[in-house]
Amino acid sequence: MRDPRFEFAPKDGRATETIAAPTYSYWRTVAEQFFNKKGMPALIAVVASVALAAFLQPLMSGYDPRVVPHINDPSMRFLGISRQFPFGTDDVGNSVWDVVWAGTRTSLVIGFLVTGINSLLGILVGAFWGFSKKMDAVMLEVYNVVNSVPDILLITVLMYLLGAGFWQLVFAMCVTGWMSGAYFIRTQVMMIRDREYNLVSRTLGTPLYKMVTRNVLPYLVSVITTIIAGQIPAAISMEVMLSFLGIGLSVETASLGRMISKYSSYFSGYPHLFWAPVSMLAIVTVSLYLMGQAIADASDPKKHR
Amino acid sequence: MKSYLIMRLLRSFISLTLVMSIVFSLIYTAIPKDRVFYTDTNIEKLQKRPDDLTNYKHLQWARLGFTEYKTLAEFCRESGALDLSACNDSGSDDARLFFEKYLSLGFTVEAFPQSGTLFAYREIPNYRRILNFWGNLFQVENVFAKGSGLHFGRDFNGNLALIGRGTRHKYLIYANGAFPFIHQNLVRISLGQSYPTYRGQDVVQVISGRQGRKVVQQARLGNGEVVETALDLHSCRYNENPSLQLLGMFPDGFSDCSPMRRGPSMLAISFILGFGSLVLSYGIGLPLGVLMASHQGKWIDRLGQAYIIVMMSVPSLAYVVLIRYLGGRYGGLPTMFALYGSQDIRSFMLPTLSLAIGSVAGRMMWMRRYMVDQSSQDYVRFARATGLGEGRIFSRHIFRNAIGPIAHGLPAAVIFTLSGALITESVYGIPGMGKLLPDSIAVYNNTMVIGITFFFTVLSILSTLLGDMLLAILDPRIALYDKHKAGKRRKKP
């Protein structure tokens, strides 16, 4: 049978050795899904530029909340938006632009640091907590008790004991902050620890730490990223609320929370003072939240085709 | 069911005790006790009289449960010394007796800086403080004691009342026009005396007592005189050392009365606010969540999601201030609570809205989540395969199953309105529960902090219990306890 429309292709020895199905790598697929999401490049650009500016701008402006050079110069107070002062000046003559960037840096660092510590502790403790029934009986009561002590009370007392300051605040926010994450992970672990594949693994004599790190935690990646995505904005908001109450950072650290609470009293006269930190905060938290959700979506293997 | 409830209450009681132990040790051991005088103006006044200052401080500490305190003068009075001033002298035999006795009891004995006379004090251990707290929690009138003089009589308005004579309160059961019309003073809950803010008042009184302007009413006093008074004569307690004037007005000795006020209590204000916003947020949030779920992926869903994301990630302080500004500027509504006070419904409008606008987002999110989760279940596919209409599947099958978890959170949501809203109350200057805890912490009002923590813990235990029970009632598949096991156990002798 000969047909002039067809011709023989040369035999490729190497091609016959490879598997036709595309190779699958979990993390590469996660990255692909994440970066190919609609609007993601713009979001990444926003987050990156805000983060970069927040770390570079305070170095250039040299803003220090303890130094108030224009405090005795009434002509510098409450200036409008101009080229020299993009967000105007506040009640003591500081450039709001400088204050906002310094505050953003603090908020970002606190958000990531607190979330990092809490997530790490929460995941580790939660994973073992879910496995061990003995630990569960104890930890459940501990969790119930600690959950009943008001956060504000605990943080205030700790801040009093340690003194106000950046690291003290981070410590106070982490002391019990990891517990809710751990509890969440524990519930998730309990749901999958008795699945067949874990049963098999256990009968084959896999040690506990290997069960946790190899069998269970990879299964929970998307759940974990979902909580982490929500925790960063939550930690930033917590700092804002604590500073609003006056129990957060000491005066030497710039803080968006303190700015918002201070400038909210000038809201009717100089609304831009209030809007500057609030919109910066909104940009940071909303874009971080969206980015976190996108990572969480991308890390769900059920959505990988 | 009964044994399950008892076990559960027992466990709650244990956790409550543990929470209180933590709070007690945080407050009494972690914070130096000098801090309680931080805002006390009396300290300033007593600066020039070091003896009185020392005495005042130790008296307050003893009253707050930090220490036990005894002066040589008291010791002399009790031992019946004839010459008080000789006994008071630090060189006297009585002083040596005092010194030896209290030193052996583990007290620290010191001398007043000016007069040199002695006093002794001892730290109360934490476990005793906790025991004292529990012991004083219920204050029961001792009506069976001799001379309690229990009888039915007429109160100052001529209403029937159960009146005691040797009791702490005069009116033990009485009626008046306020809800629930018949009141009692037989058993009262006591969480201790507030200090330094709301000085001299009971914590319970601060939280649940009416606030605001005093009300003047007519009443017949004990001496037969009819007067206009701002005192709530039903609240009168026995006064141990009354002034002559008080004794003239109240010859029976029950002259420790609190004033009658018009406005709602802190609890009531927080509840009105919280309940209003709860109704708003459920009323708006649940239908919107259902709408989003039924139009999944359409513009209405996207719009709702955008709203949820913004509300979840922007701190509440920002939108509370914004609503306050907009409402004041364009709605003509009061931006401070005190402007019209608690009697005017307009005072509650903006705060309620501020609270609701954030919580609506949460309701929308969860309602949508549960509905979407349910709609991919097998029973839905089955219902669809049997030819059921989409509308019916949605309202009868998906909605019924999705509402369960929402119902579970409902009792907690209602009960936690009592704990108040910190940011909203601060921004509008509302005298409610939310601000009370941070304010009390700031001035080292220990009794108040402990009382409020106790109250909040009880609330949280109660709300989880009620939520579980409601869930079990709504969804017959869920059993809180093993019915089978319980039945078996009962049959065995």
Secondary-structure topology with pairs:
The complex is a heterodimer of chains A (305) and B (493).
Chain A: H1 26-35, H2 40-61, H3 96-131, H4 133-148, H5 151-162, H6 166-175, H7 178-192, H8 196-203, H9 208-216, H10 221-245, H11 256-263, H12 271-298
Helix pairs in contact in A: 1-12, 2-3, 2-12, 3-4, 3-6, 3-7, 3-10, 3-12, 5-6, 8-9, 10-11, 10-12, 11-12
Chain B: H1 2-30, H2 41-45, H3 50-64, E1 67-71, H4 72-79, H5 84-88, H6 93-104, E2 108-111, E3 118-123, H7 126-137, E4 138-140, E5 151-154, E6 160-163, E7 171-175, E8 182-184, E9 187-189, H8 203-208, E10 211-214, E11 217-220, E12 226-229, H9 244-249, E13 261-263, H10 266-294, H11 299-313, H12 316-330, H13 346-375, H14 378-385, H15 390-416, H16 422-428, H17 436-442, H18 446-474, H19 483-491
Antiparallel strand pairs in B: 1-3, 2-3, 4-9, 5-6, 6-7, 7-8, 10-13, 11-12
Helix pairs in contact in B: 1-7, 1-18, 10-11, 10-13, 10-15, 11-13, 12-13, 12-16, 13-15, 15-18, 17-18
3D structure, described in words:
- The complex is a heterodimer of chains A (305) and B (493).
- Chain A is mainly alpha-helical.
- Chain A is 65% helix and 0% strand.
- Chain A has helices at residues 26-35, 40-61, 96-131, 133-148, 151-162, 166-175, 178-192, 196-203, 208-216, 221-245, 256-263, 271-298.
- In chain A, helix 3 (96-131) crosses helix 10, helix 3 (96-131) runs parallel beside helix 12 (271-298) and helix 11 runs antiparallel to helix 12.
- The relative contact order of chain A is 0.14.
- The model of chain A has no long low-confidence stretch (mean pLDDT 83).
- In chain B, strand 7 and strand 8 (182-184) form a beta hairpin.
- Chain B is α+β, with helices and mostly antiparallel strands.
- Chain B is elongated, with a radius of gyration of 29 Å.
- Chain B folds into three domains: 32-125, no CATH class; 134-262, no CATH class; 266-434, MetI-like fold, CATH 1.10.3720.10.
- Chain B has helices at residues 2-30, 41-45, 50-64, 72-79, 84-88, 93-104, 126-137, 203-208, 244-249, 266-294, 299-313, 316-330, 346-375, 378-385, 390-416, 422-428, 436-442, 446-474, 483-491; strands at 67-71, 108-111, 118-123, 138-140, 151-154, 160-163, 171-175, 182-184, 187-189, 211-214, 217-220, 226-229, 261-263.
- Chain B is built from 19 helices and 13 strands.
